Amino acid sequence: MSKIFPESKSLKEIIESHNWQLYDVTNPPENRAYTWEEIEKKAPAGQFEIGHNYLFVPIPKKGETLRQAYTPTKGLGPSLIVEDAEDETKWAGIYNVSGRYYEKKPILFTRLGFDSDFLVAFTPKTIFMPESDIVGMIYPNVIDNFRKYFRIVSPEEDGKTIPIPPPIVEGRMN
After folding, report:
1. Is residue 16 situated within a structural domain?
2. Of 96, 131, 142, 148, which is the most buried if we count CB atoms within 10 A?
């Protein structure tokens, strides 16, 4: 039996206030990544389940597909500005591959994973990016952390300085 993250509504509202939403991509078909067309058939997540992971996608404009909404982002968008990674009252941990934390830049990610003990913000491995930064948050502080530190980074702000792969490779999502 799945357990629902009790503050799903608040987290969803925070993310949607930035014109993004989350789609459940936990169990892709046939052991492969979902295609944009398959995700398009799903509704954005209304609540978040422990043990599931969710993909960030900009909320499409009227008449726009998810792929069309995502493409201009160049894989950028969701981020957290982590100022005090050692503060265990806020964070479960930071895995800092890019050096962005030390450079005081936003830590970028494309997914949220609801682990049994904490929330994980990450980007899956790809051939373009074999490792990514990971931010873990203890559940009691997720909403406060998102209210204070979550923001959307545009490609114009940051896209030229980091190697983010395109969202689709050979017709499949990364």
Report:
1. yes
2. 142
The structural domain count of the chain equals 1
Does the residue 121 lie in any domain?
A: yes
Q: Residue 159: give the domain boundaries.
A: 8-173
Quickly count: other Cβ atoms within 10 Å of residue 135's Cβ.
26
Task: Look at phi and psi of residue 23 and say left if phi exceeds 0, alpha if psi is from -120 to 50, else beta.
Answer: beta
C-alpha–C-alpha distance, residues 86 and 68, integer Å: 38
Residue 132 to residue 153: CA distance in whole angstroms: 16
Closest CA to 66 of 102, 103, 34: 34
Average pLDDT per consecutive 10 residues, the chain (174 residues; last block may be shorter): 88 97 90 87 95 95 93 84 80 79 81 94 72 87 94 74 43 42
- What's the pTM value of the predicted model, to 2 decimals? 0.84
